[in-house]
Amino acid sequence: MILHKGETLFRQGETGPLYYVKSGLLKISRLNEDGTQALVNIITPDEIIPHHSLIVQNPYHGTAIALTTCEIELVPTESWYRSIAQDTELCRDIALRLQDKLRMMQQRIDQLTEVTPMNRLIKLQAWFKQYVGTASINDILTQEEIGQFIGLRRETVNRLLRNQSTAAKVTANTQSKLPLGPKNS
């Protein structure tokens, strides 16, 4: 199935099948009791979701929304769970997938331990580049979502991104004025 940017794959609290993400990016957001949304995860290609239902089916923890056009395959739930009981290699594969996802989430938690907002943003950008690839974080996430990911207000994210952009322009301008090297005599 093809899911276009902004379309919902599943909703928080519902129970349903597993999905394999062949391509594209999804965000998982949670509706808090106070009515606010919180971005809790980004799903990348080659993931089976929801992660918390890989062994036993549970209600969806959040709502999955396409950040980009995605190609998604439905994982037949009954045969999946039956296979787990019989196939040790599948269990090992699931354990390795969950291990990789846990490592990814631990790195996300590290971003939140940074004291300065700029360092939080820099760590998120590095994390994003490692797990998402070449797309700019600004092209995929809104400033509000970036802020939710690192515990900052949208206004702070806006200021930090502007400061980064200005610093990059100054650096590029300075480098273009540097001499090319010694002159031939």
Automatic annotation (TrEMBL):
Source organism superkingdom: Bacteria
Residues annotated as domain Cyclic nucleotide-binding: 1-101
Classification via Pfam families: cNMP_binding, Crp
Keyword Transcription regulation: yes
Key words of the record: Activator, DNA-binding, Transcription, Transcription regulation
Keyword Cell inner membrane attached: no
Name of protein: Crp/Fnr family transcriptional regulator
Organism of provenance: Paenibacillus septentrionalis
